[in-house]
From TrEMBL:
The chain crosses the membrane at residues 37-64, 92-114, 126-150, 187-209. Residues 1-26 are annotated as: Disordered. The lineage of its organism: Bacteria, Bacillati, Actinomycetota, Actinomycetes, Micrococcales. It comes from the Bacteria. This is DUF624 domain-containing protein. Keywords: Membrane, Transmembrane, Transmembrane helix.
Length: 231
């Protein structure tokens, strides 16, 4: 909201010529975010749930997709009971475990390349290390974006196909997601238990980044069919 619009809203509320500030808040796009403390608590709760579901590692995509949908329901003041989270987990596991297994294999290969590059055992080590880190960043970005696009109706294949278009439509958003991944990696490296709030922050970023106000974008350039968040 611009300053002029905000001033007009305050004037309308004060003079009675328009809706009160509370009424305007009630029609907010994300009424679930009205309470910062409540949102923080929900992020921590979903971080715990994602961590629990992700214990086998290969289930991380399913856990992230379910967590993203849960936070999306919470922010829009939809039914965000945990029963819907577990329903999404069950639906996302079918293809999500295959994506998770493939991601683990690719990540291990890239980490091995980075380790060998640092040891000096490979010629052109610095270049190989750069390629390895870039590959890990691309893998994280693709995983986060696909998790945000997944829905029980469309499935993982449609989500993966939509990833390139979503990234092209919002390169700045991709940078924000990469920054979130870097932040999560750093805090987890410093103190492993912080992986729980880090996972919750990742899920929140996946929801919030595509919805942020963007100059010159009245509507999204690319629309992704997500279906009913409770389905």
């Amino acid at each position: 909201m611009s300053r002029a619009t905000d001033r007009a809203a305050r004037h309308a509320a004060a003079t009675g010529s328009g809706p009160t500030r509370d009424d305007a808040a009630g029609r907010a796009r994300f009424p679930g975010a009205k309470s910062a403390f409540g949102l923080l608590g929900e992020v921590l709760v979903i971080g715990v749930l994602i961590a629990v579901v992700s214990v086998p590692i290969i289930t991380l995509p399913a856990a992230l997709a379910a967590g993203v949908r849960h936070l999306r329901r919470f922010l829009t003041a939809d039914d965000s009971s945990l029963g819907w989270f577990w329903r999404d987990v069950r639906s996302a596991l079918l293809g999500g475990t295959a994506i998770g297994a493939a991601s683990v294999v690719v990540a291990l290969v890239l980490v091995l390349d980075i380790d060998l590059a640092g040891s000096g055992a490979l010629p052109g080590g610095p270049l190989i290390a750069v390629v390895g880190w870039a590959g890990l960043a691309a893998l994280a970005l693709a995983l986060f974006t696909a998790s945000g696009l997944w829905s029980p109706e469309s499935g993982w294949l449609a989500a993966l196909k939509a990833v390139p278009g979503a990234l092209r439509a919002d390169p700045a958003g991709a940078a924000y997601l990469l920054a979130t991944a870097g932040f999560a990696g750093v805090v987890t490296w410093q103190l492993f238990p912080l992986v729980i709030p880090a996972l919750g922050c990742i899920a929140l970023a996946i929801v919030a980044v595509p919805e942020r106000p963007r100059r010159g974008h009245g509507e999204a350039d690319v629309e992704i069919e997500r279906g009913d968040p409770r389905a």
